[in-house]
């Protein structure tokens, strides 16, 4: 069972690391086109944008699930069948998504906001194929989520898994922080996938001519699903951080305390309503929801981010840390998460949102806490797993090269987004007119920095993949 789980984890890692450089390359192509370095037809550009956005979110979601699933087996083995079903359906879903975007030129963006998929300039068959691909992916991920929740609840009742007894002053039975964070996250994923199921049923209903949908309802469902999922995939990586980061120091492992229990229970509730900040511009949205979105956006970072950041800094301070590729990625990933989170809160403030909403400040903040936060966290796990399964650590020279390329390339890349947003350069443009020539210049810089990040990624992929493949020969 242990070997089978290690092999499934390795399969997820090798698959994800194969997709990641390709998706980065799509991003470089788009920024190079915006910078006037190459020419990409508009229909192809927006198909790339759709595949890049969904592909990145999906890749790092499943890698977050795979890393969490692997560590969960230490406490309560998750059914292997759920993992295998999720892998098979994910591969099928990705193939269908690639066909819909690269061949059918489906270009509605990751958010595929209603009613855009029904007013297309792409192949007619691309819309139903896209919806089928999302359905296949969603079913696989829902099965996987439920299988992991079953494993947790087999050992811990729900109240214990969420550490409610800590809130009442009891510390028995002891529940690791990893389990608390993972349980809250998986429940959130379950609800956002239910929103996706509802959304897809409504899409298919209209496609078949059975119903006519309400645009406001469809937009709410889209962001309940999309916004919540990308937050929860970050929390999957944070759960793993709670479990692994103390292994790089010389102090005791973290234990659950009342404030950890409170913060992650609060996060589970708050993050479900933070998506309302995506609808500030929708004047027909009930005003009360806008206030809820504002408050949830302010409160969401406090429980999870502040407690975790403080814990990491306190653990690291005056601790004889064993600095290697994994621990460096974890520590600097916290920095990316923190800065990206602050930028997100600035954008989610209504008075700022009127100015920043359709500018490149938006991709700036989510690339920061994903590219330099969540992805750093998951790469840290992958490096740790690769060394564990192979018995061969990354060399100091390779580790320094990878880390330097990722850090310089990543921060340079997102820096171009922040500068563009500051000067009101709009997002989602494939080309900038002469009046926005600064956007063209900054896009060139972004493409160059992204190439550095890609080089670091390729070095990491080569080093990690060859180590992970040894799991199949054990």
UniProtKB/TrEMBL annotation:
Keyword Cell cycle among record annotations: no
Under InterPro entries, the record lists:
Cyt_c_oxase-like_su1_dom, Cyt_c_oxase-like_su1_sf, Cyt_C_Oxase_1
Q: Which GO terms describe its biological process?
A: aerobic respiration
Per the record, what is one GO cellular component?
membrane
Which keywords does this chain's UniProt record carry?
Electron transport, Membrane, Respiratory chain, Transmembrane, Transmembrane helix, Transport
Q: Where is the Cytochrome oxidase subunit I profile domain?
A: 1-474
Transmembrane portions of the chain:
12-33, 45-63, 84-113, 125-153, 178-204, 224-245, 257-276, 296-317, 329-351, 371-390, 402-425, 445-464
Q: Which Pfam families match?
A: COX1
One GO molecular function term of this record is: heme binding
What is this protein's record name?
Cytochrome C oxidase subunit I
Q: Which organism is it from?
A: Candidatus Methylomirabilis lanthanidiphila
